[in-house]
Design a protein that fits this description.
Protein name (chains A, B): Geranyltranstransferase
Oligomer: homodimer
CATH topology of chain A: Farnesyl Diphosphate Synthase
Keywords (chains A, B): Isoprene biosynthesis, Magnesium, Metal-binding, Transferase
Largest interface: A-B, 59 and 59 residues
Helix content of chain A: over 70%
Strand order of the largest sheet of chain A: 1-2
Structural class of chain A: mainly alpha
Number of strands of chain A: 2
Number of domains of chain A: 1
Family (chains A, B): Belongs to the FPP/GGPP synthase family.
EC number (chains A, B): 2.5.1.10
GO biological process, one term (chains A, B): terpenoid biosynthetic process
Distance between the termini of chain A: 10 Å
Shape of chain A: globular
Chain lengths: 295, 295
């Protein structure tokens, strides 16, 4: 395991512990709901978004407690979106992170409600004074998360993805869709680290540029995995887009073209980090990780 | 139309206008999502929860803009919960407020996403500096809403409702379920008016007691309507609980017993308002309205 991977694992463990403490215990007649929330949020995930919150904030010497709670809130949003996306009326997936999806392990109604509850919990976590002393910082973290996750962010991207299933897609549409569907939350991760770390404007812009390029590279890499990944390693069904006749970066660019695009975006992403000099070495490594995952 | 009903109509219109401005316009490739959000949120509703926010805040001379935006956020939560509750995997309802439910007018995936987007929008609205100058007030409004709407509030209540479908229910379970499922948001409406109006502790307690009794009375009255209402007046399917073999306040107490319980709760609710003297006359009227609706 490389140094970088060790750090990624450490952050993932911390976030899982934080989520375990933040999600209400399974008690009362509604205990089934908490069990489903825990099933969705505590399964092993790479926790890439939380990782970016923590590593970005660390560059500015920000409080780890603030970063960890914000990372946990962001992960609640990510996990809720997976639960809803996996529903039969959406992507209809049976497995996620190597275990049954929530509607398979429980039922559809519970999956809808567990997603709703995780989404709501994200904002409760950020609103708490435990997350940051300054209510102005908390409210900014909330406003930006709502933007990233809402109708003009992640949910909007998911809507485009659903609508486009029956119509042909070109590179522009897919790029836009992915920028909303997965890019918005990745951008939020970097932005949140900058907010908590009181980054200067030039630094915030650099982080935004980095997130933009990295987010797209991440998604193209995901499409490459989908096209040629091994189900047992990836932990979920693969070749779904091709089987469903859906266009994606790989079907439009070919595997080699997609790989080239990832390399280009990776180089661009790294350039944005120059402003941070040596402090950015973990973020620099994260780009290579995205490029080559999973090992 | 009584004075009270006129006021209720005025507030409902204001809230609809506010929601029309706050929900993003239907544009871009994700326009379908905004159309579904608008279908769900702009249909004629009684807007009882917004009404309580505005009338409570008005007792304290609070800013109408702050109250109206908070009321709109609360209504987003209420509307999202209706969209998700109407889904085939939940209550499977085809009509709501006299029009097709979102999954009927659009499709199930769009209904899931429109609900998610309305839920997210509620927090975006509250986080904005337009809602209140003081970020500490905004963050408190957000934290309390997340409590009222989350796993130990509305969504928890809905989970109990789903789980209890197959098992017999007694009065205690139903009372607890309703306190979470519908009571929590009604309590929030009164609490939010008090927060924005900087109510003193004794006043906040009185509002909480009032909300508690009124919320339960409201739900029992709903069960009475369900048992003997006219579908064309109520605007949604009636006799659903009886048809589904579900216990509710009417099946457990009988119509007369339920009516008596409503009268008792209404009297209790009014007593809580004594502290506010004449200023509470609109809230006093609202109790009678709940008792006798629809006319």
């Amino acid at each position: 395991m490389t140094n970088f991977e060790q750090r990624l694992t450490e952050v993932a463990d911390k976030v899982t512990v934080a989520l375990d403490q933040l999600i209400p215990p399974a008690s009362g007649p509604e205990a089934n709901l908490m069990r489903a929330m825990r099933h969705a949020a505590l399964a092993n995930g790479k926790r890439m978004r939380p990782f970016f919150v923590l590593e970005t904030g660390a560059m500015f010497g920000a409080s780890e407690k603030s970063l960890l709670r914000t990372a946990a809130a962001l992960e609640c949003i990510h996990c809720y979106s997976l639960v809803h996306d996996d529903l039969p009326c959406m992507d209809d997936d049976d497995f996620r992170r190597g275990q049954p999806t929530v509607h398979k392990a429980f039922d559809e109604a519970t999956a809808v409600l567990a997603g709703d509850a995780l989404l709501t919990l994200a904002f409760k976590i950020l609103a708490s004074s435990e997350t940051h002393d300054d209510p102005a910082v908390r409210v900014l973290l909330i406003e930006r998360l709502a933007d990233a996750a809402g109708a003009r962010g992640m949910v909007g991207g998911q809507m485009i993805d659903m609508l486009e299933e029956e119509s042909p897609r070109d590179l522009n549409t897919i790029t836009r869709m992915q920028r909303l569907k997965t890019g918005a939350l990745i951008s939020y991760a970097l932005e949140a680290g900058g907010i908590i770390g009181h980054a200067r404007e030039a630094e915030r812009n650099a982080l935004a540029g980095f997130a933009n390029d990295l987010g797209l590279a991440y998604q193209i890499a995901d499409d490459i995995l989908d096209a040629e990944g091994d189900e047992s390693i990836v932990g979920k069904a693969v070749s779904k887009d091709k089987d469903a006749g859906k266009a994606n970066f790989v079907t439009l660019l070919g595997v080699d073209g997609a790989r080239q695009r990832v390399r280009l975006l990776a180089a661009q992403a790294k350039e944005h980090l120059a402003i941070f000099r040596d402090k950015a070495h973990i973020l620099l490594h994260s780009v290579d990780y995205v490029l080559n995952r999973p090992r």
